[in-house]
Amino acid sequence: MARTPILALHLLVALCILSSARTSSSASSDVDGFIGCLSAGIPPSLIHTPAANSYSSLLMSSVRNLRYVLPGTTRPLLIVAATEPAHVQATVVCGRRHSVRIRTRSGGHDYEGLSYASVDPDQHFAVLDLAELRAISIDASRSEAWVGSGATLGELYYAAAAANQTFGFPAGNCPTVGVGGHLSGGGFGALSRKYGLSADNVIDAVVVDAEGRLLNRSTMGKDLFWAIRGGGGESFGVVLSWKVRLVAVPETVTVFSIRRLRNESAVDLITKWQAIAPALPRDLYLRVLVQNQQANFVALFLGRCGGLVDTMRGHFPDLGMTERDCQEMSWVKSTVFFFYNTADRPTEVLLDRRSANYYLKVKSDHVAEPIPRQALEGIWTKWLEQPEAALIMLDPYGGRMGSIPPSATPFPHRHYLYQFQFFSFWFENGTAALERRLSWVRGVYEDLTPFVSKNPRAVYVNYRDLDLGTNELEGNVTSYAKARVWGEKYFKGNFKRLAAVKSMVDPDDFFRNEQSIPPLPAAKG
Predict the structure, then answer these.
(1) Residues in domain FAD-binding PCMH-type (predicted)?
(2) Do 256 and 125 share a structural domain?
């Protein structure tokens, strides 16, 4: 898949499929015809209908948010477990021919379940599961890798380090996140202050477009290549694999985790952290996790302990960090530390794709100016002492993040101080628990309104939030005017350009969901 001869072969296959498969404009789904069409090009063992014993287990295999498998949730008509690019092409072509929409999932996380469920009870759709398209090929001589969308971040980290302990990749802190969705939304993590987003380090991709054609960077054109690197998944096509630039990390890095209770100046430290963390040297990433009435300051330093101690004493002496707080390890081991808060587990845990299932609601925000101490104290008193209190994450920007123009990729939020994430998760079922937890996370979000981003209120698209709004149809395509309500929060001024790209590559709006990019309406007059 990553080599030119193989790509050419798949392009020939695509042309053969397309020669006899043009889009039907039928308004209603022809499910039987769709299944028959799939069966002509895909082994029956890979097509899972609700009548099959394998359907439920496959559907649940990468479901993380139990809110979207509750009774009454609209489930897919079937699941195609693709094992090669031709299966993806056939699914897209058959879907268009028989008016069955496709939702694609790469096998990781999905805050609002848009890759496997729908909030519209009348929506007919199939799920295209890419979990088996997870091959990773490292070119150590060029510091590059081809990564299947179905791979997880943990699998990528493990493979890069196995090739060379000084290879890393800037992406998220959760190893069970799927590569496909993560890179499609931009991809932020502990190396982003040093090397930018994941999307900033994508140098090629293989995409199946709305016509079923297999494209790479040279054949898809610069506009589509721009859009897929941060414009959110499931709007422009199906990205099968990504060619990424691996980045240099030292053989030894240093981490620490320092907890401070409220009566140990936690609020004062967070207040100061807001201005300090984004201005720290690029080799240092210092985040804060607020949970269980304490603030946990967690750091990754691309160097040895002595250098970290000197840096912290010079920039943030109030935290009281000393050599005793240091843990030196390889970079790949640090990815284990960041997720499990311990380095005692073997790096092989990065290959474990399993993740806990729970009920979840997340909201996010960005901060342009430090929030006053009094406001932070008020938030802590009002919200963090409640029984429903969950987790608040504060991730610093700055460094390389701020030196890349906001229009370089669809991700526009590069010049903020830091990013907020309000992460509420719970295990008890029932309406009462749901309402309490939703009330908590929405309440924190509402009370922070005066102190966070404005016009529009900025949200990271990988933290999907259906509270921002959902799409409506205008004729047979998504309304651009309605989509702007949520779209400009994710993409700011880049939203209009994304819609223009959509008009070029998918004008009939085949790839759509509750928050997919709409086509840009033609200019009047």
Answers:
(1) 72-249
(2) no
pLDDT in tens, 425-453: 999 999 999 999 999 999 999 999 999 99
Side chain identity, residue 354: R
What angle (nearest 5°) sits at the alpha carbon of residue 357, between those of residues 354 and 359?
Answer: 155
Q: Is residue 290 included in any domain, yes or no?
A: yes
Confidence band (pLDDT; 50, 70, 90) for 24?
A: very low
pLDDT, position 11: 32
Extract the runs of DSSP E, i.e. beta strands, from 346-401: 359-367, 391-396
Are 160 and 169 in contact by the 8 Å Cβ rule? The answer is yes
Checking if the pLDDT of 9 tops 70, the result is no
Provide the CATH number for the domain around residue 370. Answer: 3.40.462.20
For residue 459, the cross-strand partners are none
The count of structural domains within the chain is 2
Question: CB-hemisphere CA count at 13 Å for 335?
Answer: 32
Q: Is residue 477 part of a domain?
A: no
- The interaxial angle of helices 494-505 and 480-491, nearest 10 deg, is 130
How distant, in Å, are the alpha carbons of 2, 26, 95, 237, 295 from that of 215?
A: 12, 27, 19, 10, 47
Q: Which residues of 146-177 are buried (b: 16+ CB within 10 A; e: fewer)?
A: bbbbbbbbbbbbbbbbebebbbbbbbbbbbbb
Q: For residue 86, what are the domain limits?
A: 4-129
Q: Could you tell me which residues come within 8 angstroms of residue 510 by beta carbon, excluding any fewer than 6 positions away?
A: 23, 92, 95, 96, 101, 102, 210
Q: Please indicate whether residue 356 or residue 503 has the higher confidence score (pLDDT).
A: 503
Task: Kindly state whether residues 125 and 258 are assigned to the same domain.
Answer: no
Least-confidence region, from 26-30, 152-156, 172-176, 191-195? 26-30
User: What's the confidence (pLDDT) of residue 317?
Assistant: 98
Q: Which of 420, 447, 465 is the last residue of a domain?
A: 465
Q: Which range, of 112-126, 162-176, 249-263, 284-298, averages the lowest pLDDT?
A: 112-126
Examine the fold and report which residue of 427, 442, 465 is the final residue of a domain before the chain moves on.
465
Mean pLDDT (whole number) for 212-222:
98
DSSP 136: E
Residue 388 falls within a domain, yes or no?
yes
On whether residue 204 sits in a domain, the answer given is no
CA-to-CA distance for 524 and 461, rounded, in angstroms? Answer: 30
